[in-house]
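Curious: can you check?
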Amino acid sequence: MPQSYIKRILDARIYDVAVETPLDHARFMSARLNNRVLLKREDFQPVFSFKIRGAYNKLRQLSEEQLKAGVIAASAGNHAQGLALSAAKLGVKATIVMPKTTPVIKVDAVRAHGAKVVLHGDTYDEASTYAQKLVKEKGLAYIHPYDDPDVIAGQGTVALEILRQHPGHIDAIFVPVGGGGLCAGVAAYVKYVRPEIKVFAVEPEDAACLKAAMEQGRRVVLPHVGIFADGVAVAQVGKETFRVMKDTIDGVITANTDEMCAAIKDIFEDTRSIAEPAGALALAGLKKYVAEHGCSGQTLIAIDSGANTNFDRLRYISERTEIGEKREAILAVTIPEKPGAYKTFCKDLGKRNITEFNYRYADDLEARIFVGVQVSPEREDRAALVDELHSKGYAVVDMTDNELAKLHIRHMVGGHAPQISDERVYRFEFPERPGALFNFLTQLAGRWNISMFHYRNHGSAFGRVFVGMQVPAGEEDHVTRFLDKLGYRYRDETDNDAYQFFLG
């Protein structure tokens, strides 16, 4: 059955607009995983995504009459950009229906290529339904983002390039899946030309429509679809793509948000480029495959499928990366409510680096702190840290896998503390280096009771701490002299409206 696509792929005429992208050796990733890891850099395309291949190939198959009437598509962004640029190249009018949740960078890029953008619905499926309505109303030719043989063939040229660029031994190729156009094209070509190479489909855990279809032997519609990886946020795999993939892929791997974020960082460290979540999905799957199978010395290829992401999403991605790499443990720890307890706790952590420290006074007996601690990627290290703290008498709850804690609670530890009197609050900056927080606490410990504490290591040159201290009336000058002598940049924020309104 895959052979029916071979001639289509070989005949695909895409290089009027698309480019042959490099197959890069990921040196750092290869060393970390003890395998040869290669990245197929589809972020090098003119629209920073592989989607231009299938879109242009499909347009070249249309009649003059169809092209004259104009084309339409529904897309979360990358297919939209590919079709918009392809249509501009051929002088064809294009309308793109995009979900309202599509990153602005993709919407603006589509408009910049001259296409008309219609924003409708929150998911691809809602946008697709509306696009079909416009097809009937205006007689436009619908260009499906994945479920079309000509689109699949265009995407299949990715595999053609990979096998030409690396004619040597390949153990496995990892392909991101939304509707399945890229994976179907890659799997059809690879399994016909080099059947010994394994092809793995990779999906987000919260949009795993192919996995569900493979398990049930038929296409199913997911009740809910996560949109973090918007480029693959599809509720149902394509009919034609599923027909191809069910007989050609070697398995489906799913990755969660944290694992995708970690893969984005991995790609950055090797290429200095920033993949979008869907673009890093295949590498996240590759890493999971290596971890689960313990393989080494193999040649593994991940398709970096795109780089269209909003700049402001990088803050969230960075926040989740350490957990995705399993390099940060998030713990809720109970310590005694007494001067010096913070310093003792930091000392008990040994040389482990604290990444976050949140606390607000609650009562006179116990202090509950929200703390992030760097650990090594092995799960045993995280468990060892929890056991170590238990052995030293601390009550500890591991919240590393707790979505509520990671998404919300870490930013909400605090509130008014009516039992606290004479509280003054200060904002500090100190050079960020290993042990900096411990040194800061050592100098501060035991002087005045700490009633509030917030610290988060953001990887910047300076550590920033927000501290509340109980300063009895008449001692304000003593505090000022002490802080001046401390040598850190600081600011008294006691009269700050934000503190007074929410914490004071």
About this structure: Residues 326-502 form a domain with the Biosynthetic Threonine Deaminase; domain 3 fold (CATH 3.40.1020.10). Residues 22 and 41 are 6 Å apart (CA to CA). DSSP finds 20 helices and 18 strands in the chain.
